[in-house]
Amino acid sequence: MVNSYSCLRLDIGRVILVEVYEDNDNNKQKFFEIGNDKKVPFDKLIVAQLAELIACKGNFKVSNLWKVDVDKCKLNPGSTKEDIEKLGGESMEFEYDFIKYFQEDYEPTRNKIHIVATTTGYYANGPDVTFVALSPPLSTGNKPRISTIVNSNLSLRKDRIINLRRMINLSILIKSLQDVIGWRESPEFSQIVRDKQTIEVFGTNIKKTYKIPDELDWRVEKLKNVYNILTKKSVPNIDRLICANNENGVVYLGPKGMSVKPNSLKELFEAILCVLEALVVMHGGDNPIFHQDIRWPNIIKLSGEPPKWILIDWDDADRPQTRPANHLEKTNHAPEVFLQGHGGEVDIWSVGKLITDADHFIMGLPQSIIDIGVQMQSDDRPNALNALETWRSLSNSNIF
User: Fold this and answer.
1) Which SUPFAM superfamilies match (predicted)?
2) Measured in whole angstroms, how far is the alpha carbon of residue 376 from the centre of its chain?
3) HSE of 387 in the Cβ direction (CA atoms, 13 Å)?
4) Is 0.70 topped by the overall pTM?
């Protein structure tokens, strides 16, 4: 047995590790073993075969993987997650062997498949190209583990053809990857041009450059003041100012996240919860501050577990005594934001619109959720704290 190599489980879009074996009697050829008597060479394996191998088609009906060691007679086709947990079953964790019970005959089968967070990549040394899998570090170290998947010498015609086939196979996985990580409208290293600024997305941060010469200094200075207030108030779930240059009109912001909308009720709950937690601190105390432009493009998702959403783009933020923000679009903002002396109610209205807008892209959104969004846009809006308490109470309901 050699290294484990990363592949996608296509039925649910998860990245997994599958054991790859080496045949010492056949020029050390690498292969996947399917069952007890069938071997598929790595270079000849097509994605459909791998998907069938990983998904256990025809036998394994559910996606939950469990580490269970109990009398098989205690399991039946009606066993729920809670039933398995009561029997001592544990959700499979990082790099555990596990036993799965088929619901047809309850016979246990020990597997060598591990679910892990894995990133694939490659490096090149001249014509030699190596595909690798990067796995999380073991508990004893802090460096990622690197497993070589396959090598190619692109100076050879045979290897170029084989490598092209690999690329075609990998391309089939892109849709599954997109389902997992979402669509990013801010691709890395490309410039996003807007009327008054350009935005560049780098590996770990964002560079924003203001374009109008007469506005460079005061726009950067305003952002510095805004982030200073946010930092002093210890506002959670927001981005941070890394550095700024008034003369050149440049600011660097982080962390970088994904510009995506929630794709489920659970994600909507998490996103709105993060925004309201920020608003409670922003609006509270003796030095309140208002974002004024809360929209889905200004909320980004950070990777990791549990998922976290943060509020960005503070160019339109204001403090009492607030001035009319007449440059904002009336269809996307509270009526009060265009009046003198408005307060936190404009941010609450915007959160309500986030919720009601979600009805367009999240199917089956419960009416009770939509009603909360409508209430936040009414004349009788809750403050940030009351809105947060109402939203948190949903976690105890049966809507999830």
Assistant:
1) Protein kinase-like (PK-like) (SSF56112)
2) 27
3) 35
4) no
Q: What angle do CA 125, 130, 134 make, to 5 degrees?
A: 120
Task: Indicate the burial class of 29 (C-beta count within 10 angstroms; 0-12, 13-18, 19 or more).
Answer: middle
CA 134 to CA 370: how far, in whole Å? 42
Q: What angle do CA 115, 204, 261 make, to 5 degrees?
A: 65
Positions of CATH 1.10.510.10 in the chain? 191-396
Task: State how far the Cα of 49 lies from the Cα of 377, in Å rounded to an integer.
Answer: 52
**221: CB partners within 8 A, 6+ apart:** 246
CA 390/CA 368 separation, integer angstroms = 11
Cα radius of gyration (the chain): 26
pLDDT one-digit tens code per residue, 105-148: 434 444 333 333 456 678 888 899 887 766 666 555 667 777 77
pLDDT tens-digit readout, 259-301: 889 989 999 999 999 999 999 999 999 899 999 999 999 999 9
